[in-house]
Amino acid sequence: RADLREIRYYYSKKEEFEDAAKYVIPSSILNKVDRYNQAVKDAPPQLYDLYISLYVHNNTQAALAYEWNFCNDHVKRLNKQLCEYFLRVFEK
Fold this sequence. Notes:
mainly alpha
């Protein structure tokens, strides 16, 4: 979950990170972002969409539940499934 919070932060400030990389060494967060992006490409479609919507597009679970016409608890359960998916992938 901490990794996903960092990834969300990175995407919320992506332009600033890219601009800073012109002057200093790029942030190590890019390695983490690449690792998760590679892992999510094989996720079930709904979890892939969830990752993009929550972490890349920086939506909250409540906003996404409203957009997808789901209850908040359902999005929370999907997010838990996404976290468990990443744990399984990274434990291999």
